[in-house]
Amino acid sequence: MSSAPRSGAPLLPALLAATLAGCGQPNLDELQGYVERVKARPPQPLEPIPEVPQVDTFVYEPGNRRDPFVMDDRTAQATMPQQSTGVAPDPLRRREELEQYSLDALRMVGTLEQNDTRWGLIMSPDGVLHRVRVGNYLGQNNGQITQISPEGIALTEIVGEGPGSWREREASISLRQQ
Q1: What pLDDT score was predicted for residue 62?
Q2: Could you give the residue ranges of the DSSP H alpha helices within the chain?
Q3: Higher pLDDT, residue 145 or 22
Q4: Prediction pTM value
Q5: Dihedral angle of Cα 32, 38, 39, 44, to the nearest 10 degrees
Q6: d(Cα 156, Cα 114) in Å, to the nearest integer?
Q7: Rounded to an integer, what is the distance from CA 123 to the centroid of its chain?
Q8: Beta bridge mates, 174
Q9: Domains of the chain, with CATH numbers?
Q10: Cβ-based burial of 4 (10 A; exposed 0-12, middle 13-18, buried ≥19)
Q11: Kind of pairing, strands 152-162 and 117-123?
Q12: Are the CB atoms for 168 and 141 separated by under 8 Å?
């Protein structure tokens, strides 16, 4: 949709018609000659259809091997969820922007205090400055900020130790002087 004012809309077709009227009839003889020469060429042969290779069939003879379509006790045990320790990341939680970066890719550049709230200033690898506070998430291991001090940011990460098994670990980002 054009953003031109409506009052100038009738002027545009008139201006276009006046411009085209000054051009006169273009010389199409050269173009028509080229089209005729192209049409007169004999058609090129088509490439043959590629052959589809035949796939050899295979009959499965189980012998002493287990049926691959039936779960045995050993496989069932390996795929059963382990007993949870109560610690696990929330799969329904909305991910925050700084969770796409690893902790070592993020850089703390300072702190800011506003209305009794201390904010940490984090520089992402793409050069964008982010403001975070206690409760925000950082890093790729579900790291939640637990404390912000002028020296650094402390967080608790939830890392996997196997299928259905999680544990907490402490991590931090220290203030780096340029």
Answers
A1: 79
A2: 11-21, 29-40, 73-79
A3: 145
A4: 0.52
A5: -170
A6: 24
A7: 20
A8: 152
A9: 100-174 (2.30.30.830)
A10: exposed
A11: unpaired
A12: no
Q: What is the pLDDT of residues 140-178, one digit of tens each?
A: 999 999 999 999 999 999 998 877 788 999 999 998 765
Query: Alpha helix locations (H) across 102-169?
Result: none
Helix (H, G, I), strand (E, B) or coil at 141: coil
5 token code pair: 């004012």
Total number of residues shown for the chain? 178
Contacts for 3 with CB less than 8 Å, ≥ 6 apart:
none
Specify the DSSP class assigned to residue 104: G
Identify which of 134, 143, 142, 132 has the alpha carbon closest to the alpha carbon of residue 171.
143
3-state class (DSSP) for residue 5: coil
For the beta sheet containing 107-114, the strands, ordered from the edge strand earlier in sequence to the opposite edge, are: 107-114, 117-123, 129-132
Determine how β-strand 152-162 pairs with β-strand 143-149: antiparallel
Nearest one of 140, 141, 146 to 132, comparing CA atoms? 146
